[in-house]
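Posting this for the archive.
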Amino acid sequence: MEILVIPFTLIMFAVSAVVAASTRGLGRQVLWFFVGLLFGPFGLLWALLARPQGRPCRYCREHVKDWALVCPHCTRDLADA
């Protein structure tokens, strides 16, 4: 029974890293699963501290790509005047 504790714990860290990364807007869930699986609590901490790429929209504060001219969330113009 004790032999199942370590794999179960590592899988829980992997799933938690995926959930943390996806709620923060980070892509590549498979990558975050393996980071959480291989590094355990450090992988989860990494997923919690990682920042999404891009910049926040000045109208709705959702993250958009740096090269975006229109926000895909609120459809406002992001071109600098």
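The chain has a mean pLDDT of 87. Residues 53-81 form one domain.
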